[in-house]
Amino acid sequence: MEWILILGKAFWCGFGAVGFGILFNVPPRTLFALWVGGAIGGFLKFSLLQLSAGVVFASFVGASFIGILSIPIAHFRHVPPMIFSIPSVIPLIPGVFAYRTMLGLIKLTGSIGPDYSQVIADTVNNGVKTLFIIMSLAVGVAVPMHLMRKESVKNIRLKPKAAHD
Amino acid sequence: MEEATELGSLLLDVGVSLLQSGASCSRIRITMRRFATAYHYDAHISIGPKSISLTLNDEQEQPVFTGVHSTPAQGVNFKIISGISRLSWDTVEHKLSLQQVRNELNRLLSLPHYPRWVILFFVSLAGSAFCFSFGGKAIEMMITFGATFFGLFIRQEALKKKFNSNICVYAGSLAAALFAGAFIKAGVNINLEHAFATSVLFLIPGVPLINCFTDLIDGNTLNGLVRGMNAIIISLAIALGLLTAMLIYQLQ
Q1: Last residue of a domain, which of B58, B81, B109?
Q2: How far apart are CA A31 and CA B125, in angstroms?
Q3: Which residues of chain A have pLDDT under 70?
Q4: A92 touches chain B (CB under 8 A)
């Protein structure tokens, strides 16, 4: 049952990526690739969460996979990798943690009551999670390109004997 | 000499188009250099938060052009980034003339966005998608859809009236939160967190956030910090909109 729910979430994450792709005005030929990227990223994140991995690690794996996938897609769809990878990782952004951090910060401006230290603990926890998830998304997307040590994906040979680009 | 001036101004236009469409600094630099190399010039580029300056050297290392262009603030547009990337490769491979490149750049810049209702529909769908992935139910997804639609509509209207872009974000966030909050006030039994937190997610500054880290990793520290600060200000505007709605509705 949980796995059906995970597949459902992955399915919807794909639409999240497509929605943001349209907001960022991506070329129409990349929309399907965006759906696939969003869905794969979401599937990896939620499956890892199901296997009780930490949320930061799960997001990092999802984003790294999108980052790696962006290289062949850039090749075959003729777009820079960021056009695929940025909309695809947006469904992994920790909206709820950011929201809880914000509410916690507002509570901290109130007077000090018996539960004040609990609020501090919760807020710091949510804030640090938000920060590290966003960092892991950015690093996951950016690093695969840097590991290739090429200025452009066009210079990366995907097949051993590709004649050109 | 004539050619250098024309190429220089063309390169600056390419650069500022990329900058305002949301490209990272290394992409801007690589693309401009690729064009310059295709015409046998050496480009030295400095990228500011809202401007680009360029000096072109000829093959004898003599500076033949220096100039600065600044960019009006404009929205993210990936079609321009991918179009310019293709154009740069065409220029290298097919030796396009400067006039051809200029025409193609103008064509790219005038390409239309997706129709407004398509943007509204799919971004709202993305909102409900987030709601589902955070554990929302069908009713919450529908409310998020409506809230995103309304919020994005208000933001587009505010942008048309040329308000400050952060004020537009605030207006969008406030509108979306007011929409979602109305259902809670009306007594519909929904999870406050799902409805509220996901109804404003369409405003998250995803491109500045990721470009911020990309620039920092590449060593373009100043540009990275500027983009990061921008993202923080946008996030504050979103939070302020949510808070205003919560104050109006007296929600806790």
Answers
A1: B109
A2: 14
A3: 148-165
A4: no
